[in-house]
Amino acid sequence: MIVDTLANADRYFALHSLFPRAFEFLRTTDLHALAPGHYPIQGEEIFAIVEVANGRTRADAKLEFHRKYIVIQLVLGGVDEMGWKPVSDCHNPVAEYRADHDIQFFEDVPTSWITTPAGSFCLFFTEDAHAPLVSQGEIRKVILKIATAWEPVGAHYA
């Protein structure tokens, strides 16, 4: 898990071949002008979800994790206090993993909470369970999903 600002995004380019394109989208797009919804960036390898939601309490936030996608959550407005815990330490699933939505929720309590103000992002790898949207107000954010099993154009997914 990484917490940072877009000014430092270049530091993370070497971690995944799609990170340069993902961060380019975040840096060059007028994100505040985008309506809530789904935005393809590079097919299903990289896509964005713009979300506006009222925050919830820590008690109402469920840890979630994804197997197929790394997630970058960039807060555009408000403050999102996101919970975090290693997936390997999550032992109380709400239900089985849903491959069709690439998600599983847990009843476990986060190990730590990360206060993420507007202009900052949290980057969650597949081993990071996270509980977003914890706030006393409205949160506006863009969520980037980056495929973990990406191969160059013309190749097949693993």
Structure characterization notes:
The protein has one helix spanning 19-28, and strands at 2-5, 37-42, 46-54, 63-65, 69-77, 79-86, 104-106, 112-117, 120-124, 128-131, 138-147. The longest helix is centred in the first third of the chain and has 10 residues, at 19-28. 6% of the residues lie in helices and 42% in strands. The strands form 3 sheets. It has a 6-stranded antiparallel β-sheet, with helices on one face. It has a single domain, classed as YhcH/YjgK/YiaL (Jelly Rolls). The chain has 158 residues and is mostly beta strands. Residues 151-158 have low confidence and may be disordered. It contains 1 helix and 11 strands, in the order βαββββββββββ.
List the helices and strands and how they pair.
Elements: E1 2-5, H1 19-28, E2 37-42, E3 46-54, E4 63-65, E5 69-77, E6 79-86, E7 104-106, E8 112-117, E9 120-124, E10 128-131, E11 138-147
Antiparallel strand pairs: 1-9, 2-3, 3-11, 4-7, 5-9, 5-11, 6-8, 6-10
| Strand-residue proportion | 35-45%
Number of helices: 1
CATH architectural designation: Sandwich
Order of helices and strands: EHEEEEEEEEEE
For the largest sheet, list the strands in their spatial order.
1-9-5-11-3-2
Mean pLDDT metric: 93
Overall radius of gyration: 15 Å
Whole-number total of structural domains: 1
Sum up the overall morphology in one term. Answer: globular
Low-confidence stretches: 151-158
CATH superfamily: YhcH/YjgK/YiaL
Can you count the beta strands?
A: 11
Taking the alpha carbons of the first and last residues, their distance comes to 24 Å
